[in-house]
Amino acid sequence: MKSKKTRIRVRLLKAFTAVLFFSFLLIGVIFNIAVRLFVGGDANLRFYFGFSDVLGRASLILLVVVGVMFVVTFVVTYFLSNSLTKSIERLSKFAQNIGHGDFAPNDVSFCEVELENLNMALNKSVKQLDEYDREQKVFFQNASHELRTPLMSIQCYAEGISFGIMEPKAASATILQETEHLADLVTDLLYISKLDNITTAYAVEEVDITTLIQDAAARQEAVAAKKQVRFAFDFGDSPVYYICTRDFMARAIDNLISNAVRYAASEITLSCRECADRIEICIADDGAGIAPDLMPHIFERFTKGPNGNHGIGLSIVKTIVEQRGGRIAVTNGNSGGAIFTITLPR
Fold first, then answer.
1. Residue in 95, 83, 85, 99 with CA at minimum distance from that of residue 119
2. Percent of the chain with pLDDT over 90
């Protein structure tokens, strides 16, 4: 670290010294030209080589001024470079602390506008990283708990079959159910991993949102029919095109419709409208709605309502929508049921 600091100072000193040297060299050339113009002829040569007291004194004064200015410039440059490198050293230390997992903000301010802007940017990054780190710790704790529950259930029923204390057919049905539950949870966790990976770029394409909604409803048709829930579509006459990652947007709509099927009483209304500057997707069910105490936390990870699955589905929807610069909101309808509204910018 010290060698880098020295190199920066040396470069500054060399730059200032070079500028100063060439500046005074230019002054000397101008002085020489002036002598030739005003004195002229052979007399100029005599004056130039010190035969004139006036020019000799002028040359001496110029030399002294050059020396003094050189020393002053060198001293000023030294302290300026020292101040600059100290500031850079503080910022470098701050960046190293971030790399080591220390997300404490840097309370030091800098006089230089550029360095202060860099300091503010680093502090903003530290705040975001600290929040992300805390969220990840909570996420892994909750994920471990959610994974452990079906695994323990599978283990208990498998041991019951092995020791002959459980009826194999009933126990096997429970094992299959928990295995399916576990597979869905792992799939959701993999989606979260994809969405949280900020270093990966995903291909985007122009898709028809109404087609995605219809396809998602078709995938939920069997479950909806079993519960005697029907779908009502409220679309315009024209397709609604939007540029996005097809897989992610389809997953967001799937999760919302699946959630609506779980809580609907008899009907789910699916609508999509294109406005001048936005696209609005609305999924409404006629169920009991969302409890007031659950409403503020409905999009948080591992927040489950009554008969909820993993508590991850709606958080995935929120992440997908916000990554496209959109927003998602939920309200309870006047006649009951939850209404989820996605707003996507054009």
1. 95
2. 23
